[in-house]
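Below is how a single chain appears once it has passed through the pipeline. First comes the sequence as given, then the structure the pipeline wrote out for it. We keep one example in the README because the format questions we get most often are answered faster by looking than by reading.
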Amino acid sequence: MSVAGPPGPVMDRDEVDRALARLDAEHEAIETSLLALQDHAGRRLLEGARLTGTTHDRWGATERAITQLWAYFDAYADALRSARDLRARRRWPSRDDLVELTDLLRGESITVPGTANAPTSPSITGPAKLTERFTLAELVDRMNELYAHSLDVVVAADAVWSALPARIDLLAAELARTRQLAHSVGVRPGEHPSGDDLERITAALTTLREEVVSDPLAYWQPAQGSSAPGGGRPSTDAYDRQARALEEVRREIDAVLTVRQDAEARLGRLRDVLSRADRTLAEARSARGEVLAKIAASEVPAVSGPPTALQEQLAMAADYRRHAQWHRLSPLLESLEQKAEDELLRARESLTAVTAPLAVRAELRGRLDAYKAKVARHGLAEDSLLIERYDAARRMLWSAPCDLRVAEEAVLRYQRAAAEALAPRVPQQGGPTDRRGES
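Resulting structure:
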């Protein structure tokens, strides 16, 4: 019995019985929770694992806390058993019995060895406590605190182990399939960037799995503002980075596979485009000779020959296809397709530039004939001035070589004469005007 006496008023028989009933229920709940913690799969895994880093440190402290929990529970159970035995002596307890029961149930009646495991324990530089005294309520609070911290470690480690290794294994299996497919299309380390990426991802996943297994708490992200045990989620940032990297490699492999499937058709289209460019350039060279023979005083651009570099690259692409070097063929085809289209456009522009003088001559011929037809529709086909100027322009346009500048001036003179002939005329004194004097 405490020398200082019971804390507060002495409890009566009914208060004692109610307190014992509540403490019995509390004892059962605590025991159930401790047994559940003892049997928790995460705790068993932590006990058998080779731990490192954060998990090694925290689990060491947690094991000591769990040991202390059971020691606290035994002390709690002993105190409760003593109270029940004292209450069971008499149906109607005496005053001394009630004083002793009040001290057991409400006073600092439980003495346990001092420990540094509790979060509220004194620092190493503070005074050491060889023993600690608790009331039953204080001891329950201490057990709840240790239990929450212990359960948090166990649940967090179990959650990481339940989530991440399986996901890493699935990603590793997908990585193995991707590596096999990559190897079949020539994407290998040292030969293609994606092959090097696959090697890096493989090493990263291996390291990640080892770290997750040995130090799961390093991959635990606590929930902000949550004090509940196990509040949070496994951190998947490192896993997600490797998953994204593998997805990028898969897209590259798919592009290489597409090249393997479409290579022959794409090579055929390339040959066709380059052939059309060559024919267009040949036509431009032929047209240039015709222009030089038929058109005088005209600047005719030179026509280059077919680009031998593109033909060499096309032959290289065909060789890559024959030897199944798809990873090299893919970028080469993309480059060649753009260059071939550019070459065809250049050939067409060259033909247009070379034949421009012929197009000008054709336009002048068409304009001259159109005005002649218009004059004829108005009954002026026999006009001597118009006939004379038409013949002069026609001789220039149909002669070789044709001087386009002089021919255009002749056509313009015919146009002006036709316009005057077709305009309404006002009679003037002095007789009709002679239009032959016009220059």
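The mean pLDDT is 84.

See the next section for the split statistics.
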